[in-house]
Amino acid sequence: MPLHYHSLVVWQRADDLFIDVHQLTRASFPDFERFELSSQLRRAAYSVAANVVEGSEREHKKERLNFLSFSRASLAEVGYCLHVAKRLGYIDAAKFNAFDVSIRRVSAALHGYIRAVKEGRAR
Predict the structure, then answer these.
(1) CATH label, 27-118, candidates 3.20.20.70, 1.20.1440.60, 3.30.70.980, 1.25.60.10
(2) Structure pTM?
(3) What is 65-105 written as a DSSP string?
(4) How confident is the model at residue 2, as a pLDDT?
(5) Average pLDDT over residues 15-41
(6) pLDDT in tens, 29-81
(7) Residue 49 and residue 106: Cα distance in Å, rounded?
(8) Within 13 Å of residue 6, how many CA atoms lie on the same side as its CB?
(9) What pLDDT sits at residue 1?
(10) Domain-by-domain residue ranges, the chain?
(11) pLDDT at position 35, please?
């Protein structure tokens, strides 16, 4: 039986973003960044999806919205980490732009989910 959050578009997109970020950091970042920017970027991307999961399973609306707010903040951090990676030359403009599109897709779904929770249309 699939878990509740598996049906959420926001979680699906955030999960894909995490996998893509993880693969990017392993393939494109220098070894000396393993415990610095690479690690921070992976943790932030993981946090986006993980907070959607935790928020979706919370009993009270206020708790759900709190975790979704954490998710939104982590998504902004992912964007900044990728910006830094581009400036440092770890990724090129094309790869950055592709991730920017993914971040915007996650953001749109996350804002929609937050709105639905606020309006009582989503659990």
Answers:
(1) 1.20.1440.60
(2) 0.94
(3) HHHHHHHHHHHHHHHHHHHHHHHTTSS-HHHHHHHHHHHHH
(4) 66
(5) 95
(6) 999 988 899 999 999 999 999 999 999 999 999 999 999 999 999 999 999 99
(7) 10
(8) 4
(9) 53
(10) 27-118
(11) 85
Question: Residue 123 is encoded by which pair of tokens?
Answer: 């659990």
**60-to-8, 72, 113, 118 alpha-carbon distances in Å:** 18, 19, 15, 11
> Do 96 and 24 contact (CB within 8 A), yes or no?
no
CB atoms within 10 A of CB 71: 26
CB 58 within 8 A of CB 41: no
CA 40 to each of CA 67, 72, 100, 109: distance values in angstroms, whole numbers, following the listed order? 19, 16, 17, 23
